[in-house]
Amino acid sequence: MIPRRLEPKLRELARYYPVVAVTGPRQSGKTTLCQKVFPKKAYVSLEALDARDYARTDPRGFFTEYKKGAIIDEVQHVPELLSYLQGEVDTQPESGRFILTGSQHFGLSQSIAQSLAGRCGILVLLPLSFDELSQFKTSPDELYQVLWQGAYPRIYDRKIPPHQWLADYVTTYIQRDVRQLVNVSDLQAFSGFLKLCAGRTAQELNASKLSNDVGVSHNTVRAWLSVLEASYIIHRLPAWFTNVRKQVVKAPKIHFIDSGLTCYLLGITEPQQLRHHPQRGAIFESWVVSELFKNLVHRGKHANLFHYREARGLEIDLIIEDGQQLHAIEIKSAETIASDAFTNLQRFIHRLTDAKDSRTLASTLIYGGEESQRRTHARVTPWRQVNSLKI
């Protein structure tokens, strides 16, 4: 297994807390990472029905068997187990005793907040970042191939054709995870909803229009969006606003976390289709946002990511808040830099100056080309150096 960027933070939290939970989407590599970092710990998966039944019906006996600690996989299947775990670690609060993994963020986080507050560190493992992906011998080195294949580890570790693996992943996700998270009576409607959302990646969320297009209620769309977010299919990017005296649009954007999954849902069957595809720019923008999101969460940092748009046109694709530092990032999929590529960044600098915002601003243009440059108003960063940004 290749080293994951989350590994040092996982080791660190295991020195502080008796319990550490690693959450994230299915097949992002959580189990593999935890077993690599803690090879001497016993391992039990609550995905297995017999282990799940044991943990649910005899939790005290379960913890007696794993008295020395264990990696407990897919713990969201038996959330009531965490109440017994609280008593267990209060009696024996040895650091790094139990390592939990789970695939459903909301359910696991709520259970931890109720039962293990102050006793548990929480981390998120997403699919491979580009610098992690580059460690595979078979990793793609061309932009459209990178976008099309996506970043789920098993595609590279087992050398499975991306389209085949993603098709199976979607089927499993819809038939298992969706049913566990929400009562979806019409899986075909949800499947259509998922594809419509893929077509809206990097766009502002309009739940009313989406509900009309899908043919379900507004409340159902909101519930389904929460399912996508809870299972780490999408990331909802809130609008950024401060004391800038302009009419600012406050709707969030949605970004698919994995570009390969987006391409599959949009019916893009080969990488070169992306070159002239109408969604090329949106897929690239979501890929960049996802890479920077991974950059932060895989270091255990809170991801203060936003977008900015005024009703009259000024738009910044991504804003990252880092204390007294602001990062304004424009994202262009083109391989060459157009003359007007820096216009919005320049205008945003003036907005902050007029608003007397005292924070330091770093402006960056990330594009689909290969050359790194330093311009008057922004640093130009090629796509393959996206993980080099100091955030």
Notes on the protein architecture:
The chain is built from 16 helices and 14 strands. It is 41% helix and 17% strand. The longest helix has 20 residues, at 162-181. It folds into two domains: 7-124, P-loop containing nucleotide triphosphate hydrolases (Rossmann fold, 3-Layer(aba) Sandwich), CATH 3.40.50; 130-388, no CATH class. The model has no long low-confidence stretch (mean pLDDT 92). It is of the alpha/beta class. The protein has helices at residues 7-16, 30-37, 49-57, 59-65, 81-91, 105-115, 130-133, 143-149, 153-157, 162-181, 187-198, 207-214, 218-230, 259-265, 280-297, 343-354; strands at residues 19-23, 42-45, 70-73, 98-102, 120-124, 203-204, 234-237, 253-256, 305-309, 315-322, 325-332, 360-367, 373-374, 379-382. α3 packs across α4 (59-65), α5 (81-91) crosses α6 and α12 (207-214) packs across α13.
Low-confidence stretches: none
Q: What does the average pLDDT come to?
A: 92
Adjacency order of strands in the biggest sheet: 9-10-11-12-14-13
Strand content: 15-25%
Number of domains: 2
- Gross geometry: globular
What value does the Rg take, in angstroms?
22 Å
Could you tell me the number of beta strands? 14
Measured distance between first and last alpha carbons: 27 Å
The arrangement of helices and strands along the chain is: HEHEHHEHEHEHHHHHEHHEEHHEEEHEEE
Count the helices. How many? 16
Largest sheet: 6 strands, mixed
Helix content: 40-55%
Query: What structural class do helix, strand and pairing data support?
Result: alpha/beta
